[in-house]
Specification:
- This protein is mainly α and 437 residues long.
- The longest helix is centred in the middle third of the chain and has 32 residues, at 150-181.
- The protein is 70% helix and 0% strand.
- It is globular.
- Residues 207-229 are annotated as: Disordered.
Length: 437
Amino acid sequence: MPQPPADEPSRPVVLITPYRRLFALPGTRAFTLGNLIARLPMGMFSVSAVIMIAGSRGSYALAGAVTATGLAATALVAPWTARLVDRHGQARVAVPATVIAVLGSLALLLCVRLGAPDWTLFLCYAATATTPNTGGMSRARWAHLLRDDPAARHTANSFEQAADELCFMLGPILAAFLCTALFPEAGTLVGGVLLLTGVLVFASQRSTEPPASGRRTPGPPGSSGPSVSFGLSVSSGSSAARSPLRAPGMAPVLSVCLAMGAVFGSMEVVTIAFADARGQQSAAGVVLALQALGSCAAGLLYGALKPGGPASRRLPWCVAAMTALMTLPLLAATLTGSLPALALALLLAGMATAPTMITTMTLVQHHTPEDRLNEGMTLAVTGLLGGIACGAGAGGWVSEHVSVTAAYMVPVTAAATAVLFSALGQRRPDWPKPQGT
């Protein structure tokens, strides 16, 4: 594996150096650019759908239910898509899967535009479930390129999490602007174009793509070489047969992901409803972006530093910090009712998100077989999506039937549940105990 050139010790920018070394590797800048373009719509679709549906049908409960259905469908389909990616290769699977997802988004747009029955909205948004896990595919490329360098993998994981936050920072702003300044369906339309373009650019970078497990599954003992198997049945002795879901300690980590997803999903819907109740719906994207900005900054700093102790011990503390900070938006909404105060609270609340997600992904990567890495990370994302679906539905219901200020109790409760899961997980004998970070 080519090694990036070492920086001179006299360089003053210590925090930037680890990231510079990452992108000295051939091909990393090209696949990262394509992946960022494909990832930006991830922060656009749900906000665009909520604004588009709520504006057309006059119901945040319906908007929350539709987005929750789509996310739930993604949680079911995404692991199978990821398994196909691992087995057949990123380029061969991601492109057709993206085409199907974009067609689902366009169908949703047309149904809203033409006033189709409500049930068609659920059906169309569920069709977007084939969207590939672009962040997972990018992390899998880093894991392949940096398989012998744990410190660089930590930096790469931190960069990827910061990239997630950057996209979720810019995505809502762009979506809210497009939907309010142009027409309600503009956010969904632009998001679909960006997703397809980014995946095509990413998939074209074949030099950094990890080998497909179907082309490198080890043959049986005594065989002269690797066997090729693209079927669903493989030898029980192969690493490809071990589902990441059955890995020791994976269940507690996925439970934490589920609860954290509920935090994110409820916070998004509730904040949009809070801004709309004050006649400032167009500012909702900016307010949500500040939460992602805090997380992005914290993630980049966390990646440049070397955290101490195993990730399994750090996770409960990260989740506890996130829970404490999530009370700030509740206090701001309840005590002030001010959108600027809420924006500041969300900026501070986001600072614990990236370190928590980086630590979680580190645990997932440590306990996932190499040839199932994309599937393992997608299971973590699936847990998040399942939680986002539940959180979006709960946040929309409480916002409409109780109050938008009381609805901020939903993310606080979900964060506290994540603390409980992480605390109980440490008492389990299968809780992951990796060495180092």
